[in-house]
Design goal:
Shape of chain A: globular
Oligomer: heterodimer
Helix content of chain B: 25-40%
Strand order of the largest sheet of chain B: 2-3-1-4-5
Structural class of chain A: alpha/beta
Radius of gyration of chain B: 12 Å
Structural class of chain B: alpha+beta
Order of helices and strands of chain B: EHEEHEE
Largest interface: A-B, 23 and 17 residues
Number of strands of chain B: 5
Distance between the termini of chain B: 21 Å
Number of helices of chain A: 11
Largest sheet of chain A: 7 strands, mixed
Order of helices and strands of chain A: EHHEHEHEHEHEEEHHEEHEEHEH
């Protein structure tokens, strides 16, 4: 039986009830939200928005907008607020979902970019970010939790400081939403993007973007919303403004089940279990000879995401032994984050990434660690 | 059940759904129906309520800080803006 340790890419298994909810939705829920009398799907969309707003501390659920995935939502935020002459501050740990749109804006839209180096652990330096902010800074984009090292950044401290500037504060919550306590209002976040399919334990195909009251990016996509149909202009009203085209309705049904599971389990209990998993894996990894562990060496402020090098060996070979002999699924390479690998010193080879999920048992972790030990020694 | 002769329009489908939640909480009966063509060109919905609940619905909207786009009453086959003094 395979042991899936690639939860930073997408969670597996999904929360109980997700698959059934999607199946039931396809079988029995007709119609599209906002397109006449399909009240069932409209209620579903509304309830998912409410559940997510509750989880993220948003006081108005209309400020949560849905799209295809986190990358789509990050592009909506970045490309929607920046214009020629604007300055952006970001960190050296960003995923391509952030770095590529920023580079595009730098090359083709007259935007100036400052990349503040993070530590080799993957943690940003708040003072360095704040010092890089100027009067022209329109946006500060940071990674909440690294998909490469698992390091959790202190976004709660940064938001308040940035409110004293002209800059919007955007957080890439791809790895943190559903795994770390996020309070968009308390942490003064202007834009938070995240996926439904990672730590929210839902299906792929849905991303979300929270927008604060002071932040109104231009939409990335224009079109039919089911509202104000006589107008050639995009509706100003949220969430319609950012949700042209048909929603992923079965996906929303799955996400609804996943969010209900998280609410029943409680985020607090999820965080506690994830911390136990993190500590157990970290303790185990330090016992295996021949490994280089990148990222924080302590289990504090860390997700169960671990980047490993195997000096003197091809990490692809090690991962292949892990997969073929032991059925342990990992991810090898740059993890769409070349900046991050340059920061931690693993570029261009990349690392073997082991990313655990909420449903892993202690026995799963022991099996994975034994398999890793065996693979490193026998490769 | 309502007579469908008084309808409440909200600014968006999201706001409509929010208002539904508020009315359910306050135990005010309503039905959701397709927006009459006379009142808009989109594919939206309206809340049909009883005439006797109009004041309460307005108060709820005010209390919940939710803007009602319009309240209409069917009069001689057409939808007219609701003016409370004409219906007392």
């Amino acid at each position: 039986m395979n042991l899936y340790f690639n939860n930073a890419a997408t969670s597996w298994p999904k929360a109980p009830g997700v698959a059934e909810a999607m199946f039931d939705n396809i079988e029995s829920c007709m119609g599209s939200p906002g397109r006449s009398h399909y009240f069932q799907s409209q209620k579903l969309l509304f309830s998912v928005r409410q559940l997510l707003a509750g989880l993220l501390g948003a006081d108005e659920s209309s400020r949560i907008v849905f799209g295809l995935n986190t990358t789509h939502m990050i592009n909506t935020g970045i490309r929607g607020v920046l214009k020629s002459g604007d300055h952006v501050v970001t960190t050296s740990m960003e995923h391509n979902a952030v770095s590529r749109p920023l580079r595009y804006m730098e090359k083709y839209a007259g935007v100036r970019l400052t990349i503040v180096p993070s530590s080799p652990d993957g943690l940003f330096d708040i003072n360095a970010i704040v010092n890089a902010v100027t009067e022209q800074t329109k946006l500060v984009v940071v990674n909440h939790s690294s998909n490469v090292t698992g390091a959790i950044n202190r976004v709660n401290s940064l938001g308040g400081i940035l409110r004293e500037s002209n800059a919007y504060f955007m957080v890439d919550g791809a790895q943190s939403a559903g795994a770390v306590n996020i309070d968009v209002k308390k942490h003064k976040i202007d834009m938070l993007a995240g996926p439904g399919h990672k730590n929210l334990l839902g299906p792929s195909g849905i991303g979300f973007l929270y927008l604060s009251k002071r932040c109104k990016p231009c939409p990335l996509i224009y079109g039919g919303t089911g509202s104000f149909s006589d107008s050639d202009d995009q509706p100003e009203e949220l969430p319609d403004c950012y949700e042209s085209g048909t929603h992923n309705i079965p996906g929303l049904a799955g996400l609804s089940a996943a969010l209900s599971f998280i609410n029943e389990t409680t985020l607090k209990a999820i965080v506690v279990r994830k911390n136990e998993i993190t500590k157990k894996i970290l303790d185990g990894l330090t016992q295996i000879k021949g490994l280089t562990l990148y990222g924080p060496s302590s289990s504090e402020n860390r997700m169960p995401v671990f980047s490993l090098g195997v000096p003197g060996k091809d990490i692809a070979d090690v991962a292949e032994v892990l997969r073929q002999k032991h059925g342990v699924i990992t991810r090898v390479g740059l993890h769409c984050s070349p900046w991050a690998h340059k920061t931690i010193g693993s570029y261009p080879e990349g690392t073997i990434r082991i990313s655990a999920g909420f449903f892993h048992t202690d026995s799963d972790i022991n099996r994975m660690l034994e398999a890793l030990d065996h693979s490193v020694r026998n490769c | 059940m309502t007579t469908n002769d008084v309808i409440v329009l909200m600014q968006s489908v999201h706001k409509h759904m929010q208002m539904e939640t508020f009315l359910e909480q306050e135990r005010i009966s309503f039905t959701t129906r397709i927006k009459p063509r006379q009142l808009g060109t989109d594919c939206g919905m309206v809340l049909a309520i009883d005439l006797s609940d109009v004041f309460r619905v307005e108060q709820i909207a005010k209390r919940k800080n939710t803007q009602i786009f319009g309240i209409y009453i069917r009069y001689e086959g057409a939808w007219k803006p609701f003016k409370p003094d004409q219906h007392q």
